[in-house]
Specification:
With 284 residues, the chain is mainly α. It has three domains: 89 residues, Arc Repressor Mutant, subunit A, CATH 1.10.10.10; 65 residues, no CATH class; 100 residues, no CATH class. Helices cover 52% and strands 8% of the residues. It has twelve helices and seven strands. It has a three-stranded antiparallel β-sheet. α6 packs antiparallel against α8, α10 crosses α12 and α11 crosses α12. It is elongated, with a radius of gyration of 23 Å. The relative contact order is 0.07.
Length: 284
């Protein structure tokens, strides 16, 4: 066994060096460990509310060697940066974490200012839901547009945008929502985060459970519900009209209820003798 194998045989901490330079070493260590835990609980389908997981002070110290005071300071800084959210839940109360999409904005902003540099032989964090992506893969995809670089150390902004866009598309095709909605969202993917894509899925199934949305296409003219096509139309129109989306699930609820109310007020008085369907969405 060589020295490298010996060092990693009992577990190792994966820390992105460029991220450590940007946010601090302790913060990068804590963030990397939390991303790893998020992936672990996600693989077991045990994330609370689809995105939260808990980690005790003791476990975090065991896995990172960082004591409570150092943990608290690093976690506070990660929250200020928007990289994580924390919450106490359950009885007895436990410390829960949620990984945000802010890492992309942070990396892209550093790339734009030429401050986020990384050797191409190291690994860069691609996203909080999967793993670390080797920069060699990025270099091979970007040879035709970035062949003037001689030291291969500058992180390429365009390439990262491509990878992020590609990852969001993969998430979109994997979630359980109507195919028509997936197709519509594909054209708007650049304006959505990974979390927002998952939240659209959660909102869809929530409204199925509450009865606001039904999968029966014959319910088109039912004044009390939306069918899946109408739900799709609502989401598309919402995204076309709302610029700054912060609480997408709450916004979807508002628009769904608004659409049902509009149907109820107007569709009952529509004359169907013409054989045409009332276009309630486009006549708002």
């Amino acid at each position: 066994m060589n020295l490298f194998d010996l060092l990693r045989s009992d577990g190792s901490i994966v820390v992105n060096k460029a991220l450590a330079h940007t946010i601090g070493l302790n913060e990068a260590i804590i963030y990397s460990e939390l991303v790893s835990l998020n992936e672990y609980w996600k693989s077991k389908e045990q994330l609370t509310d689809g995105e939260w997981f808990y980690c005790t002070i003791e476990n975090l110290q065991k896995n990172t060697t960082l004591k409570r005071s150092t943990q608290d300071k690093a976690i506070k800084n990660l929250e200020k940066l928007g990289l994580i959210h924390t919450r106490r839940m359950g009885l007895p109360a436990k410390r829960y974490f949620r990984i945000t999409d802010k890492i992309y904005e942070l990396i892209l902003s550093k790339a734009h200012s030429n401050q986020f540099v990384e050797n191409k032989q190291t690994r860069v964090l691609k996203n909080e839901h999967t793993s670390l992506r080797d920069l060699n893969k990025q270099d091979s995809r970007n040879q035709t547009t970035n062949n003037t670089r001689t030291n291969n150390t500058e992180f390429n902004n365009t390439e990262y945008l491509y990878l992020y866009h590609e990852d969001k598309l993969n998430v979109l095709w994997e979630i359980n929502i109507p195919k028509a909605l997936k197709t519509k969202l594909k054209d708007k993917i650049s304006n959505l985060s990974v979390n927002q894509i998952h939240e659209i899925e959660q909102a869809y199934h929530h409204h199925l459970m509450t009865g606001n949305v039904v999968e029966d296409e014959t319910a088109y003219n039912d004044p009390e519900v939306l069918n899946t096509q109408q739900f799709t139309d609502v989401i598309v129109k919402m995204l076309d009209n709302v610029d700054d989306i912060k609480n997408i699930k709450g916004l979807i609820k508002k628009w769904v209820l608004k659409a049902i109310s509009f149907k109820m007020d107007n569709i009952l008085g529509f004359d169907y003798s013409s054989g045409k369907k009332y276009d309630w969405l486009n006549n708002q």
